[in-house]
Design a protein that fits this description.
Layout: H1 3-26, H2 31-39, H3 43-68, H4 78-94, H5 99-111, H6 115-143, H7 145-156, H8 166-190, H9 192-196, H10 199-216, H11 224-243, H12 257-271, H13 281-289, H14 297-328, H15 343-346
Helix pairs in contact: 1-13, 3-4, 3-6, 3-11, 3-14, 4-5, 4-14, 5-6, 6-12, 7-8, 11-12, 12-13, 13-14
Length: 350
């Protein structure tokens, strides 16, 4: 690991620690009270959440196999892709964004699938997850509009004119967005030729084209219907992983299904932040959104810590088991050179 990567890791670790310290201080949460509440939880619900976690990771591995099917001659088994996915999640707990590389490297070790090809399928997979997150974000906003608008009204406080309502705020925001979009479209058409020569425009347009190509890659799938089924199954399991944990503690047992949806979406945004395993960012966002559903700041932070902790423990346990599988199967792949030294593993295909 070079100095640049070390600095990146230290910065992400510092951000995680700072956010975690801030959330605990803001909620006035006593660590002793936190441990007491978590130790008194009903762990039958934790076991059920763990089952949903395993199903989600297996389904993600199966969906990955569907993406690999039309682009590589190798046929990795369900065990090989599942082990690779779990290894990637374990790596993400230590280093943000390291999971994709570890996942593809493990799959190469197990089934000789070239890293550059498998990495491309992982990027395409992430695009579909991003699309699902956007759809869920929109659904959450529509279903919980009153609650969310009330939250933003209270958050903005005196910055809004007297008599302003959530509906008027939405209309104003919509008018601003529509006006901005029309202005941007006018300027784009007027200065398109000049913009086309600008490096920033070329980078942005190239990025957007890559996103579109990734989303359209589903047309190459041999079983697109099964791909959609696995995508829906993954996100359903993600929802149930956190929703079932509500019932493990008396303070959160009364939260409804919409609360589970909101926490799923907000928690996913927190996990996407550049911190190891979403530490700090997840706690901050989920702890704040829990206030919308009548929880105290302490109970909201306990819930966030509990959900994140259960998820982290499951990843560590499953990740260690995955590493053991890799080590046990090592004798079957001893003829493969190291991933970083093998040109076939990273060869760019045309």
């Amino acid at each position: 690991m070079n100095l640049k990567n070390i600095l990146k890791y230290l910065i992400s670790l510092a951000i995680a620690g700072g956010l975690l310290w801030f959330t605990f201080k803001q909620s006035h949460l006593d660590v002793g009270d936190l441990m007491q509440k978590i130790s008194a939880a009903d762990y039958r619900w934790v076991l059920l959440s763990g089952l949903f976690t395993i199903i989600a990771h297996w389904s993600r591995a199966e969906r990955w196999r569907l993406l690999l099917e039309p682009v590589v001659p190798q046929r990795p088994t369900s065990l090989e892709t599942t082990v690779s996915v779990l290894t990637g999640y374990l790596a993400n707990m230590a280093l943000p964004r390291a999971g994709e590389v570890a996942r593809c490297g493990t799959l190469y070790r197990l089934s000789a699938v070239p890293v550059n090809v498998s990495f491309g399928t992982v990027v395409a997979e992430r695009l579909f997850d991003l699309l699902m997150l956007i759809l869920l974000l929109g659904a959450t906003f529509v279903l919980e509009f009153d609650r969310l608008s009330q939250f933003f009204m209270e958050f903005l406080g005196g910055k809004l004119p007297k008599g302003s309502s959530g509906s008027s705020l939405l209309l104003l925001a919509g008018a601003v967005v529509l006006g901005g979009a029309l202005l941007a479209w006018f300027l784009f058409n007027r200065y398109r030729e000049a913009l086309g020569k600008h490096p920033l425009y070329q980078k942005v347009s190239g990025f957007l084209k890559g996103l579109l190509d990734g989303l359209l890659s589903v047309r190459k799938l041999r079983r697109p219907g099964l791909f959609v089924v696995h995508t829906l199954l993954i996100w359903t399991m993600y929802y149930l992983m956190s929703y079932t944990l509500f019932f493990a503690m008396p303070a959160t047992a009364g939260l409804g299904m919409l609360a589970g949806l909101t926490i799923l979406v907000v928690g996913s945004l927190g996990m996407a932040a550049p911190t190891p395993g979403g530490i700090g960012s997840f706690h901050l966002l989920v702890g704040q959104v829990a206030l919308l559903y009548g929880l105290t700041s302490q109970d909201g932070q306990i819930l966030a810590t509990f959900i994140h902790g259960v998820s982290a423990v499951m990843i560590i346990i499953l990740g260690i088991l995955a590493l053991l599988v890799v080590l046990l199967r090592r004798n079957k792949t001893t003829n493969l050179p190291d991933v970083l030294d093998d040109p076939k593993a990273i060869k760019l295909e045309r």
